[in-house]
Amino acid sequence: MVDVKYFSYGAAAMALVGAMGSFVGASNGIVAIISGVLCLVGAIGAVAFYKYGYVLVPLILQRANVVQLMEGGFEVPASNDVVLKNVGGVYYASKYLGVRIYESAAEKSTEENIVYSEYFERAISSVKYVTKFAIMVYMKDISDHRSRIETKHAEAQLRLARERDKPDPDVLRLDRYEKEVAMWDNQINKLTRGIKPMGLISYVMTTAVGVSKEAAAAAATAQANELRATISNALNVQVDLLNGDEMLRCFQWEVMIPPTPSELAQSVI
Hints:
- This protein has 8 helices and 7 strands, in the order ααββββαβααβαβαα.
- The protein is of the alpha+beta class.
- Strands 1, 2, 3, 4, 5, 6 and 7 form a 7-stranded antiparallel sheet that branches.
């Protein structure tokens, strides 16, 4: 399985080699120029992979048509958006979706929770295939949590203001952004009252079967798109199709989850 950090390390090593070459070959103009270019490209690459590796690495693997092979007979194609496995000549394909929930059940009334549960059951009853919902909870470290919450709150307010300023704003998106702002408001208020914050990470998994890799992946993608629309509309939450490192993390979590809150928080930031 490809890890983004190895791309960063490789680029950093290239920058280091270039820097050393610049000093060693300072008397040779051509060597110095080549080493300088190598150092510059490596430094830029290291920063780019460190910050945007989750975007760059999937693009590179897709362009290079690289297939990632993993233990257990699983593989990830160049598209980097589905996990495949051949079982007895038939291919199984699994897709993952991230679910962002902006409201807590503890902050709703009993009636609101009942209605929410009914919406969820109605949404699921329309799905004809097996669907896995996974939820991980943990207590957050409040040492630097407040500053991150305030930053997220400001970003959510900006998104809400931009949507409101549109000539024809999306009603569902407005409602979702308002709930997100309210969620950050509630978290800030809880911190002010001394209540320890709880984190929640949720994702959905769906699997399809096909006679070929392409057929299985296409069927899984269709199921994932249907789930995305169904869950998003029924529960008014943000649902995203996962790929790259985000998808592979969910795949790893099917076997073993991070043992501490700090490791879990670092894996999704």
